[in-house]
Design goal:
Elements (H helix, E strand, L loop, with lengths): L11 E5 L4 H13 L4 E6 L19 E5 L5 H11 L3 E4 L6 H6 L1 H23 L7 E7 L23 H20 L3 E6 L1 E3 L8 H10 L4 E4 L5 E6 H14 L5 E4 L4 E3 H16 L10 E4 L14 H7 L7 H14 L1 H8 L2 H11 L2
Parallel strand pairs: 1-2, 1-4, 2-3, 4-5, 5-6, 6-10, 7-9, 8-12
Antiparallel strand pairs: 9-11
Helix pairs in contact: 1-7, 2-4, 4-5, 6-8, 8-10
Bound molecules: nicotinamide-adenine-dinucleotide and 2'deoxy-thymidine-5'-diphospho-alpha-D-glucose (DAU).
Length: 359
Amino acid sequence: MSTQSKTIPPKIIMVTGGACFIGSHVVRLLVNKYPGYHIVNLDALTYAGNMANLKDVGKAPNYTFEKGDITDEARIRELFEQYHFDAVIHLAAESHVDRSIMDPLAFVKTNVLGTAILLHAAHAAWKKDPAGKLFYHVSTDEVYGSLGKEGFFTEETPYDPRSPYSASKASSDHFVMAWYHTYGMPVILSNCSNNYGSNHFPEKLIPLMINNILHHKPLPVYGKGENVRDWLFVEDHARAIDTIFHHGKTGEKYNIGGFNEWKNIDIVNLLCGIMDKKLGRTPGESAQLITYVKDRPGHDLRYAIDATKLNKELGWKPSLQFEEGLEKTVDWYLANQDWVKAVTSGDYQNYYAEQYVKR
Ligand code: NAD
Ligand code: DAU
């Protein structure tokens, strides 16, 4: 009997949007955990993509960066011909709800057309031999719409998107399942709740509040601050994607969430308390910056994920308590002010004025 160990075939994986907040954590995990895989990060480097997010893995021998746009069909086909990908993990997207209200068509183009172009190219490349191939689509809980005070989103909850962002993500999910049913494309989908952690672009609630608290700027809470989100530490999301990618069932979807619901106003107060301590301010000082502003149009009241399927079938669960994760996050922002300064200069100032000053 041979004592040779079984050879694991090399996996060549295209990660789209790998320079972003969540994408960079996914790329780091895969590059470090699987030295035998080749991770090709395809990213257009929009305002949200940032090479600095991956400077620690940039020179790894199993990592390659390709600048490119998922809506550029010729470029995507060329990349499939060049690398012979075994799998795609698709994160590239326009992801901010407020920007989708300002410029909805940009979301249709990237999130809907871009996803369809990737699916089309993957199908062309894989149709003769789909064995061992996988198209993993990273989606959001926002496709399910808005919950009242009770209940949870399960994998069976009907889609009911209510913003241009969530409608574009819902549409992309439908295209992924259409390729599964029509062409037999091996696909998996996951729908995750709100992420937080390092490298989060400061247009989103938590990093925006951390930055404004630090600089004594008003803390813009939409409406009454009563909306509820279910928060998950970004590295736990990356671990969930790794688990589902390797052990999930083709043609299925998995909800990912933190079992961690918070009202926006409570998070802002928690951050104020943490930062008062860290910055040596008088308790209550930062909370005086809280400013209630005009509500987001069509603002979803509550998201809450039931992640039982992922826990029961694949054994994943979140690793961090929220307070601990928030402390880590605040520490990262305080220690990485160069990163924050670089992403909040230029275009960010125009966006900020449009969203918060001129309204
Ligand atoms: P992000 O907005 O921080 O970054 C998006 C990335 O996509 C950037 O690197 C950008 O350069 C790239 N990109 C945008 N358009 C592109 C194009 N046309 N071609 C190639 N690259 C392009 O995103 P994020 O918040 O990290 O979210 C990543 C994914 O996870 C998205 O698909 C999002 O819908 C999903 N998601 C996000 C959250 C969250 O809380 N942020 C929760 C659940 C799901
Ligand atoms: O649920 C997953 C989704 O979470 C992801 O799919 C999206 O890509 C991601 O952006 C996030 O969407 P939200 O709209 O929930 O996240 P955001 O950080 O923009 O807002 C969180 C809550 O905070 C929401 O109720 C709106 C509110 N808010 C947000 C901002 C930026 C404020 O009150 N003030 C603000 O300035």
